[in-house]
Amino acid sequence: MGQSEEQLESQWDKMLKIKTTGRDDSHADAFCYPYEPTPYCVLERLANSGLIQKKQTVLDYGTGKGRVCFFLSYQTRCHSVGIEYDERIFAGAEQNRENAVSGARTQFVLANAENYKVPSDVSFCYFFNPFSVEILKRVVARILESYYENPRPIQLMFYYPSDEYVSFLMTQDELMFSDEIDCRDLFDGNDSREKILVFDVG
Fold first, then answer.
1. Domains along the sequence of the chain with CATH
2. What does the alpha-carbon distance between residue 109 and residue 63 come to, in Å, rounded to a whole number?
3. Which of 60-64, 124-128, 186-190 is least confident?
4. Which three-class secondary structure state does DSSP give residue 170?
5. How many C-beta neighbours within 10 Å does residue 86 have?
6. Cα(70)–Cα(47) distance, integer angstroms
7. Which pLDDT band holds residue 1 (cuts at 50, 70, 90)?
8. What range(s) does the Methyltransferase domain occupy (predicted)?
9. Residue 75 host element (H or E)
10. Is 173 within 8 Å of 144 (Cβ atoms)?
11. Is 144 within 8 Å of 176 (Cβ atoms)?
């Protein structure tokens, strides 16, 4: 990561009045992956895509310390809900919420993603490889339950998707690939995984 990217990370944290930088592997295992925040430059591109509108609700799976929720709520004026299973990291998100400039539009839930009932107003679900594809399958089933109970436009967004995720998503009849937000130019190395894949539910 270049110096300017590091500066951008700390500048945004400072502006949003939160602390979200750094990676945390302490409770990672074969199913639940380490906490690593989405880079702010990627979130800027997502916010500028126009997909997320004011007052819509974004659900962030594996929210960690809440960066995605705080940033998108601040930039797009959406509501956001972050799901986190690790109590210690969840406490960090809650602490951030007390000071965050967009705290009123964000909320966090301590829960296992596969057991979480998706609220009926959720329009977007965001994933940065938070867990194994086995858990993802159960989470997508939960999202579909919510969709069938209250049919509405829902989009699933996958940043830096793994091959396992892509293989699973492409075989789901209820999911339709609809967009790709290219982020390769934001980083060195021209990594083909530097993108956000967007799928429509229904």
1. 3-18+38-201 (3.40.50.150)
2. 9
3. 186-190
4. helix
5. 18
6. 12
7. very low
8. 53-117
9. helix 67-76
10. no
11. no
